[in-house]
């Protein structure tokens, strides 16, 4: 047999070394996750079930962890009370997603989606660059401007702004694994959720008035939690398909507190003398009430909430109607749902219709998630469906898995929106 080439040997060594680094990174991230509220509660559930199994000299009680989680979640959806932290759930997902796709950044794949605009022959890299150029033009940005990206993922947008447009960039991210990547790529990233940062007046004062533009790429969906938008809070009112049925409820007040403060923060981050002064939102919106779905839809909604987490802005104006709280007005909007759906179908290492890699770092992360993530089982049921080429919860909620033929009446739509500071 011919001897392997030096390039082949070096390539194999590089891949093994890369996997080793990723495995160590996964272990470090998951070790820190053990101290989160949800992980501690999950460990307590496992400990109780293990004690029961030991006392009965049987293994079957260990299989009840999913049932225990399901009961806790059902009570949360009604009353808004849960020992789990929904913020921890979002962090757990994106920490895990970092490793099951092995390296989901750069090369045209990020934690958003790509801009095909009907041309699906584009490479991922080209479609991502087109997305950034499209947003750049709509926002009226200029080279050298200052941009803050809230929920910055692993920094592809910021990296493009910095290296191609010579912009000064700052990211905000609550996910440990993502912050590590952004900083390794040479960019400033604040490790925090935006609510905590905005509430910390001393820290926020260092950022206030320092930016020409603030962007929110595919992150606002996570800001209202399932523990906050509940049946008792207003979801159970008659005629729940109408947006007005939330008026006067705790749910409406929670959306005001969340989206209203979001716009306030964005407004205070902008330099009042900037020639740009805009905010960008790429956000999924809910198109109709959960009450219109059947049992299959209820399961998919439960799966979505369990590991992607978040209750979307309700109906097309579910976000924009809160813009005046920050002194903004909506100046541009376009529906990009099919671009989102097709990105997931065309690029299976994209998080939407993710194809579980099975690489060592993915297996390490999955094993750790058994203890750090109470919804481990929901995620991995969906992952198996994806491996089998079947419909996952993510693909269901965007319109299914048939290329170029989205199902009608999908429960989510993706809107790109530009907000401008309203003139006094």
Global morphology: globular
Beta percentage is: 5-15%
| Topology as a string of helices (H) and strands (E) | HHHHHEHEHEHHEHHEHEHHHHE
The biggest beta sheet reads:
7 strands, mixed
Kindly provide the radius of gyration, computed on alpha-carbon positions and rounded to a whole number of angstroms.
Answer: 22 Å
Structure commentary:
- By secondary structure, the chain is α/β, with parallel strands linked by helices.
- 45% of the residues are buried.
- It has helices spanning 6-33, 37-56, 65-79, 86-100, 124-139, 156-164, 176-184, 194-199, 201-205, 231-235, 250-269, 295-308, 337-346, 360-372, 376-387, 393-398, and strands at 146-150, 168-173, 188-191, 213-217, 278-286, 328-335, 412-421.
- Helix 1 (6-33) runs antiparallel to helix 4, helix 1 packs parallel to helix 14 and helix 4 (86-100) runs antiparallel to helix 14.
- The protein has a seven-stranded mixed beta sheet with strand order 3-2-1-4-5-7-6, with helices on both faces.
- The chain contains 16 helices and seven strands.
